[in-house]
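[job 4471] stage=fold_predict status=RUNNING
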Amino acid sequence: MQLHIKRQAGATLIEIIMVVALIAIITIGALTYYNSASESSKVQEAVGGLTGLSAVIRNQFQSQGDYQGLTEALVFRSTNVPVNMKSTVNTDQLRHPWSQTAAAVLVAPAASPYASFNITFAELPRGACVEITSKVYKSFTSMTVNGTAVTPTTGAATASLSCTNTNTNVLVMTQS
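[job 4471] inference complete, writing structure tokens
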């Protein structure tokens, strides 16, 4: 008597599960990398916009001698303001990569005698708050994170401790 053994055709359930799991792992890895790269890109955009905005304001008011009359609308109309900082939702308003709202980026002269000005970034997520603070705090005369002063000796530590886990972090940078 001769036994006829048929070869199995197709994949087993275990093989299918392994392939699906492998695809899921690759997808999760790709999404994680994309989110990390996207966040890093937003931070770089914000830092570049912030330093550009500061330079534009200083240049605009250089001949005046003080910053009296500084408003978002005035800065918005300047041709030198980084395009990525101009809100596409609110006319004459400035924005950052995490928010298009009118209150996301504010500029105003500091208290009288208007010898300096403030740039406020509001509605920042924690990661962006820490990264931006760590990168720019030495470029400004003074800076606060959610009301806590950032100094050259406590910069990164203050940012890490003062930035909250909400998307409501506020950075106020003062420039003379």
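[job 4471] summary: The helical segments are 13-61, 72-76, 126-136, 155-162.
[job 4471] exit 0
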